[in-house]
C-alpha cells in the first residue's frame, strides 16, 4: 500500500487493555504450550480491536515491538577452548579504565603513558617516575590529540629522588615576609613557586599512601630493583607489567619474582600491536612495531 494514499489515522486509537483482549496469563499459556512467537504475535494482531485503524507505519512499528518482546533468540556455539577463552577475555574489564590509579616508569618516549591516558579518558590518576627534575617531555604525547586540561588533571610526575620516602627535597623559599616583596612580578613568581612545591608534596603523599591499581614499566634500567621499589605502593591483586626487548632480562626478573610468595603467576609472553587504540590522533610510523617485544606480567 502507498502510505501517501491511505486514509488510516492514529488519532482515535487507544492501545489500552480494553482493545487487546489477550491477557498476560493467556500469552504465557501459549508460550508454555510451545506456540511459536510469530503465531502469538498474529493472535495479538487478530484480537486487537483497533489494529486495522492504524497507519501502515504504526502497524509495522507495533509488530516490531512485539517481535522484540516475544522473539528473543540465541545461538549456541561449540564450547571449544578458544571460544571459552574468548568469552572470558571479553568479560574481563580493561585494566586501564577511567577512574583507575596507576604508576608508570616510561623510558619509551611516552608511549606507555599515552597508552594508559587514552584508556583512562581523563579520569583517575597516573603518576610517572622519571630521571629528570622537571616533568618529562614524553615526545609521543606531542603526536596525540589529548585535551591538555584532561591530561594535567590526571598525570603527575616524580623523579627517582623525590620518589624516595626518606628524601627531603631542597626547594627555594616560596614564602617571604611581605616587606621583602619588591614587585608584583616577584609576588607572582613566589605564588607560582608555591603551587609547584605544594603539587610536589601532594604527589609524594599520594604515592606513599599506595593502593594503586597497577604498575607498568618500560625502562632502560634493570626491572627488578624498580619492581622492588614501587611494588609497596600498589594494592593487593594489582597487575605488574614490564616491557623489554630482551628475553634474558625478563627471564631473570621472572626467576627473582618466583622466589617472592606475594607475586602470583609471573609470566613472560610475546605480543605485537601495530597501532594505538583510542581517540583519533596522528603519530609517526616509527612507533608502529614497538610492541613487537616481550612482555612480563605478574599479579601482586
Which descriptors apply to this entry?
300 residues, 36% helix, seven-stranded mixed beta sheet, alpha/beta, elongated
Descriptive overview:
This is tRNA (adenine(58)-N(1))-methyltransferase non-catalytic subunit TRM6. One of its GO terms (cellular component) is nucleus. The protein is α/β, with parallel strands linked by helices and 300 residues long. It is 36% helix and 17% strand. The chain has a seven-stranded mixed beta sheet with strand order 3-2-1-4-5-7-6, sandwiched between helices. The N and C termini lie far apart (67 Å).
Q: State the helix count.
A: 9
Distance between the termini: 67 Å
Mass-distribution shape: elongated
Which segments are poorly predicted (pLDDT under 50) over 5 or more consecutive residues?
Answer: 272-293
Subcellular location: Nucleus
Family: Belongs to the TRM6/GCD10 family.
Protein name: tRNA (adenine(58)-N(1))-methyltransferase non-catalytic subunit TRM6
GO molecular function: translation initiation factor activity
What's the structural blueprint in terms of helices and strands?
Layout: H1 24-32, H2 37-47, H3 56-70, H4 81-91, E1 101-106, H5 111-120, E2 125-130, H6 148-154, E3 155-159, H7 184-209, E4 212-218, H8 223-230, E5 234-244, H9 247-258, E6 264-271, E7 293-299
Parallel strand pairs: 1-2, 1-4, 2-3, 4-5
Antiparallel strand pairs: 5-7, 6-7
